[in-house]
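(Structure overview)
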Amino acid sequence: MTGEVSPPQRDPARTDWRGLLFADDRHGPLPVLLLGLTVVTGLVDAVSILSLGRVFVANMTGNVVFIGFAVAGAPGFSLAASLSALAGFLVGAAASGRLVARYRVDRGRLLLAGIMFELAFVAGGLVLVAVADQVTSGVRDSTAALLAIGLGAQNAVVRALAVPDLTTTVLTLTLTGLVTDIRAGANPAMLRRILAVTTMFGGAVLGALLVLGPGPVAALGAATAVLSLVTVVGAVVTRRPERWHTPVG
C-alpha cells in the first residue's frame, strides 16, 4: 500500500547503552546498585587508610602487603589493625557464604540480604567511632574489624551475583580489560569499566575530604547513607520476580 510510513527503527547500540545500568535484560538494575557499593568501598577505605593506621578493609590484596610491611617493622603500619581487618573480612565472607547458599536461586533477594548485612556492620563502625572520645588502638582495631566484616560480605555477594566488570572492590582486572580491549572501540562493557573506576575514585576523594575535614565520623556517615539508599532501592526493585533474579549460567 502506497503512502505507508514504516515505524522508526530502534538503534540497538543506543538501546544497549541506555539499558546498561538500569534495564539490562540479564542483570536488571544490578549494575547501578553495584556502582553504589563501589562508592562505599572508596569511602570506607579512605577512613581505614587515613584514620585506622594504614589498613585496607575492602581490598585484602593491599592489606596482606601492609601486614608484610608491619611484620618487617616498617613505620606507620599497624599489624594489629591489619590482622583485625583480615580476620573480619574472612568472617564477613564466610557469613555471607551462608546467604549465598540460601538465596542462590534469587539474585534479587541475595542482593538485598547482603546489603542489609553489610549496612549493619558499617553502621556499627560509625557508632563505635562516634561514641569514642578518641581513636585509641582498641577502637581502631575494632572499627577495622567491623568495617571489614561488612566489606567481606559485600565481596562474597557480589561474586555470586556475577555482573561483569563490577567487583565493587578491586579494579585490577577492570583496568586491564579497559586498556586491552580499547581497540574494540566504545561499547557497553567499556562504559561499565569506566564507571567502576570513576565511582571508586569519587568515593575515595569524597572520603578523604570528609576524613581530613569534619573527620572519620562524617565519612562513615556518608558510607552508611549510601548503603541505606542502595538498600531502599534494592528493596523496591526486588518486590516482584524479574528475569534478572535468576542466577547467571
